[in-house]
Amino acid sequence: MNKQIRIFLFHGVVREHRHRLRNYTRKHLSVDEFVRFIRNTIKLYYPVTMDDCLEACLGKSDLPPQSFAVTFDDGFENNALVAAPILADLGLPATFYLTTGFVGTDLGSWTDEIESALEEDTATEICGFGKGIDGRYETVEEKQALMENVRQTVKSDPAIDPYEYSKDLVKAMGPREIDSCRELDAKLTWDQVRELDEEPLFTVGGHGHTHRILSYLGHDDLVDEIGMSLKLIEEAVGHPSIHYSYPEGMPSCYSPEVIRVLKQFGVRCCPTAIAGFNEFHSDPFELRRIQVDGSEV
To answer: CDD domains annotated for this entry (predicted)?
Structure first.
């Protein structure tokens, strides 16, 4: 029988979808979508922890064929308020990778900031940002296409600071109402992080301090980014974490140097966001994940 580990990647779970543009990628599933996916998955596969995955990767233990693990990136408050109770009721383990600089805030990622500005039901004109970005955007579909172009532009250029870029882009859109939605924006508090860590089913890991792409940082900034995130987590939960996930997580977003620094800080397992399954004995710093966006349910 084929021995594979499926690591599912989630970001958040909300009560319902209510926005025109925001969350169009379904980074946050609805409760119904999440429950349906989880119930279908446990009928087919065997749930394991990321510790179990690590042990299998190192050849220290075996796992049942067709195992799966649940992971969440970024550290949204809805992880604790909505997703965690559902998982606990079902007895399912999960690992929560959090961006420590966001903890206790309503700060969005740079893409969240742009989507919030585009949510307003008015035409948007942009100029001065180059081909693929400049233009007039009226419909939801046009604004979604803009977001895809923005993501491609920013993520492919190490010279671009994503937060400066998003600030400048939003400013170029002119005065507008910025959509604020606590269910989509709020991040975990440190008390909630501690509560998750105290639940035996759950594990807390790092996901950067500012969510910047690790491979784009100079050595000193890379050490600060990883070191600060792990230091804050250890201070909050009372013990070090060996778990991490790469912000953005695509092939260009990590490197041998990134992995070396993670290992220097005691990290032993760091999955990517590259789509795919994992064989037993896979490299724990090259693990693939399957992003769940609701299309599977």
So the answer is: CE4_NodB_like_5s_6s
Cα separation of 234 and 243, whole Å?
Answer: 12
If asked whether residues 9 and 102 sit together in one domain, one would say yes
DSSP helix/strand/coil, 231? helix
Determine the Cα–Cα distance for residues 21 and 25; give it in Å rounded to an integer. 9
Specify whether 24 is located in the same domain as 91.
yes
- Note the pLDDT of residue 293: 87
Q: Provide the 8-state DSSP code for 266.
A: T
> Domain range for residue 115?
110-172
What pLDDT, on the 0 to 100 scale, is given for residue 1? 47
Q: 3-state SS of the chain: helix, strand, coil percent to 5?
A: 40, 15, 40
**Residue range 110-125: average pLDDT?**
90
Please report, in angstroms and rounded to a whole number, the separation of the first and last CA atoms in the chain. Answer: 26
Whichever domain contains 78, its CATH number is 3.20.20.370
SS (HEC) of 19-79: CCCCCCCCCEEEHHHHHHHHHHHHHHCEECCHHHHHHHHCCCCCCCCCEEEEEEEECEHHH
The model scores a pTM over 0.85: yes
Question: How many domains, in total, are found in the chain?
Answer: 2
